[in-house]
Design goal:
Elements (H helix, E strand, L loop, with lengths): L15 H16 L11 E2 L9 E2 L6 E7 L6 E6 H9 L5 E8 L4 E8 L9 E3 L14 E5 L9 E5 L2 E2 L2 H11 L7 H17 L3 E3 H5 L2 H7 L6 H14 L3 E3 L4 E4 L1
Parallel strand pairs: 3-5
Antiparallel strand pairs: 1-2, 2-3, 4-8, 5-6, 6-9, 7-8, 9-10, 11-13, 12-13
Helix pairs in contact: 4-7
Length: about 260
């Protein structure tokens, strides 16, 4: 993977967004490989292809690139809220590459990959509608709350110009791929509970350790009045899926 982009492609455009989009998408077409299979390339789709920028010619997985000249923080801007939520609920959202580049040198600094099946609905944050005077008055966008996605599924492809090998990226991708087989209606809670488990930073923990985050889950699910029951159920589901080991009635070990 080369870290230098072809900045001269920006010369034909005046809009900052168009300049960045052309340069970064062209770089992706030259450097992206499929983390889901052994394909060394992704096909660059025609401009305007709805919600997708690339497609794997071998396994058919779809990918979208989000690029920015600032560091990738806990929140990343996306498009329409309703469209993203519908895509998640119907298992149709793409896998996402989040790219941080240096504008002065058109150099890749960081690249993060998040599989489509790793987005709980709670990670999609609704923005305020555009004002009545805006060109698209009333339009509602969204942000990705990356800190609500388990660390397992925030796969580092490039970290401060250090490139991970395709083998490492694919291995990490496969570790979280069991979530793809979990029904969408169950997946969100499991991802949220796993995210909290990772935040504990413990190799061994108990139900009580996760119950300590009851207030957090109540904020995410204000209409659920059986939070602890749900946590207990999802810990058991995570153990059955191979992400945890159920070591005792209320005891777990991190795999």
């Amino acid at each position: 993977m080369q870290l230098f982009m072809t900045g001269k492609l920006a010369d034909a455009y005046t809009s900052g967004a168009q300049r960045a989009g052309k340069v970064t998408e062209a770089w992706g077409a030259e450097n992206f490989y499929c983390p889901n299979c052994s394909s060394p390339k992704l096909d660059w789709l025609k401009p305007g292809t709805k919600a997708n920028d690339y497609c794997c010619p071998s396994c058919g997985f779809w990918y979208q690139l989000k690029s920015q000249k600032t560091r990738i923080a806990s929140s990343v801007t996306d498009g329409a809220y309703a469209a993203m939520m519908e895509a998640i609920r119907n298992n149709r959202s793409p896998n996402f590459f989040f790219l941080h580049y240096d504008l002065a040198t058109w150099t890749v600094r960081n690249l993060l990959l998040v599989p489509y099946f790793a987005f709980p609905p709670s990670a999609i944050i609704k923005r305020k509608p555009l004002s009545a005077t805006a060109r698209r008055a009333g339009w509602v966008g969204c942000n990705f709350a990356l800190n609500r996605i388990p660390a397992d599924a925030r796969i580092s492809v490039v970290a401060e110009k250090q490139v991970a090998s395709p083998e490492t990226v694919r291995e990490q991708f496969q570790k979280v791929k069991p979530f793809e087989e979990i029904p969408v209606e169950q997946r969100g809670w499991m991802l949220e509970v796993l995210n909290v488990v990772r935040q504990l930073g413990k190799k061994e923990f108990t139900n009580q350790d996760v119950y300590a985050f009851e207030g957090h889950f109540r904020e995410l699910h204000p209409n659920n009045h059986f939070i602890r029951d749900k946590i207990r159920q999802k810990l058991q589901d995570l153990a059955r899926a191979g992400f945890l080991i159920h070591a005792g009635r209320n005891d777990y070990r991190v795999v």
